[in-house]
Structure formats: structure tokens, C-alpha cells
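Anyone up for a design puzzle?
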């Protein structure tokens, strides 16, 4: 909402308005002032909203690769957009995770939609996530970040979604690997689609991870 301003004219100025020339000049100045003040009020809000460097990431457990078909964001009443992801593998946790495909969020979203194919399960999953209002404030709280130079406090402005077998989604907030904090878990819906669409990709996947799957199976819980 833009700020509203009141413009007062003094008695002597009202007298001057009796002249058509002075009236035109005064009202022209008034219009310019109102426009400028209105722009300052509106732009300060939008600029502040965009100065925060929000980011997203999508991750998957090692050996349990997925192909993310759709990743879409929406800020209610303002904008909706998508980001390409495609093939996604390691890592879910440990020294290399959670981490994966990432990008910048110009606006903090209200909704996130994910749809992916699990190579290990040969299944499709889909979920629309409603972002709770409290997440944004939690992510703004400073957290310790260790660099090669020093230790500093930085907000956890990266929103990470982990996609696990069984359709489980884990959401974290982080500013670097190691200071992630779990925000929530969601269960995706399974879609009835032909896995043969990814036949060639699956063959390549099994060449790399087939032996591991034979030995360890595909756990669908405990992530």
C-alpha cells in the first residue's frame, strides 16, 4: 500500500489562487509533489522486498537420482514463474549436502509446486506446497557461517527441498552446508504415468547405480 500525503494551502496562498495564472501554477506544483511523494512511498517498499537475496535449492539422496519435470513458484497477486531443473542426484546430507540445483528467488514465494520422476522407483510424484507465513521470518534470523577468513552471522536465506524415494519432501533453510535447519516434511502424490518415457535415462542411471540398488534396495522411509 502506498503512503498518503496531505497538502495544505495557507490563507495567503488561497488568495493568490483567485488569479487563473497562479491557480494553474499552484495546482501544477501540487500534482508534481503528490506524484513524487507517491512514487517514493511505493518504490521504497518494492526495493526493500527485492534487496533480500533469497535462493532455492533442490536436492536428492546419493544413488537415488530423479528428473525434476516442473519447479514452479508463486507470489500471490504478484507473479508466478518456473525454473528448469532436469536431472538431479547427490547430495542429500553429509559434507556435500543438502545441495543441488539452485537459483535466485527475486520474490519470496507463497506456493511451490514440484513434479519429478524417480529413477530408482520408476514412479512420478507431484506436490503443491503452501509456504507457511512464519518461514520467512525464521530464515531472516542470523546463523553462524564459517568462511576461510572468519566466522560471521548470516541469515539462512536459501530454501532447500529434498526429494526422496517414496515421495517424501524435506524442506530446510540454510546459508551454507552444515547449518541447515529442517522446516517441515511433506508427502507427495503419486502420478499414474508411463515410466517408459525415461527408458533411455533409466538405462544410463542403472549402469551407474544398479549394483548399489541390488545391494541396498530402495528405502521409502527413514529419510
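Challenge accepted. My sequence:
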Amino acid at each position: 500500500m502506498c503512503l498518503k500525503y496531505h497538502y495544505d494551502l495557507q490563507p495567503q496562498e488561497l488568495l493568490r489562487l483567485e488569479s487563473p495564472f497562479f491557480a494553474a501554477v499552484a495546482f501544477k506544483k501540487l500534482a508534481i509533489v503528490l506524484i513524487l511523494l507517491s512514487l517514493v512511498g511505493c518504490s521504497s517498499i518494492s526495493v526493500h522486498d527485492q534487496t533480500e537475496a533469497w535462493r532455492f535449492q533442490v536436492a536428492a539422496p546419493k544413488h537415488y537420482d530423479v528428473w525434476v519435470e516442473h519447479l514452479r513458484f508463486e507470489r500471490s497477486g504478484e507473479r508466478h514463474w518456473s525454473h528448469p531443473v532436469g536431472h538431479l542426484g547427490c547430495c542429500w546430507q553429509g559434507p556435500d549436502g543438502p545441495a543441488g540445483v539452485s537459483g535466485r528467488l527475486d520474490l519470496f514465494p507463497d506456493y511451490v509446486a514440484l513434479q519429478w520422476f524417480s529413477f530408482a522407483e520408476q514412479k512420478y510424484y507431484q506436490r503443491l506446497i503452501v509456504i507457511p507465513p512464519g518461514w520467512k521470518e525464521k530464515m531472516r534470523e542470523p546463523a553462524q557461517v564459517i568462511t576461510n577468513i572468519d566466522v560471521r552471522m548470516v541469515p539462512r536465506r536459501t530454501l532447500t527441498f529434498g526429494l526422496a524415494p517414496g515421495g517424501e519432501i524435506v524442506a530446510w533453510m540454510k546459508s551454507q552446508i552444515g547449518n541447515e535447519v529442517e522446516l517441515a516434511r511433506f508427502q507427495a502424490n503419486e502420478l499414474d504415468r508411463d515410466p517408459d518415457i525415461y527408458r533411455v535415462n533409466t538405462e544410463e542411471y542403472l549402469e551407474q547405480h544398479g549394483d548399489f540398488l541390488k545391494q541396498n534396495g530402495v528405502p521409502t522411509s527413514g529419510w
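A detail worth pointing out: The mean pLDDT is 82.
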